[in-house]
Amino acid sequence: MKIKMLGLILVITAALLSGCMYPKEELTQNQIPYKDQVQAVQTAVDDFKRDNSGILPIKTKEAETPIYQKYPIEFKKISPKYIANPPGNAYENGGIFQYVLVDVETNPTVKLLDLRMTETIRELKLRIKTKGYPPYKTQIAKNVFSLDYKKLGYETAPFVVSPYTNQNLSLVITGSAEVYVDYRPDLYQKLKNSDIVVKPGEDIRSILVKDSMFVPAYSLPYTIDKKTKEPIFLEE
Q: Which of 58, 101, 177, 221 is the most buried (most CB within 10 A)?
């Protein structure tokens, strides 16, 4: 009995040691957005599309799925024929990014969705569900509100880290209790530091996507204020 117990302890110890020694480097690799990996997936998508009469290797999503989450790449369709394996930073390979497509009708382009946002939003929605209702705090725009986080048990307000600027972005909620990331600080910085021309009334989220590997996941539409020219939520 003692021998069996000793053997069990040794197995558990070995597993713990390997867990401490091995995944650290792997974890780091799985959290870095490599341009060459995005390009490799882009090439695979382009080749698949060429060989399949314009069909794209994407998962089927419901029609009402938000545009930047609507076209996730289905790696089973392109691996191993067009790419050996999903990149190490892809969710399918233990990474923190979901590979998605934008501009599917005109120019299908591979981008990344940071899934750490998903976890933060999931936790917040779980707390709201546990409480039974969202404790709205202030109205930010039409059908857009902030939350009273203390009533949800938070000591400090939750946030997500912007994939564009690395600044902390707050979360907002709609009247239908859907949680979104507030990208106004990113949009403000982008508009301030560029000569991009945008018009009031048009969705300006594309300016974040254009020169970046990332999509503004869990975002509401934004436009600019007619007077201040600053980003605001686009009322639909």
A: 101
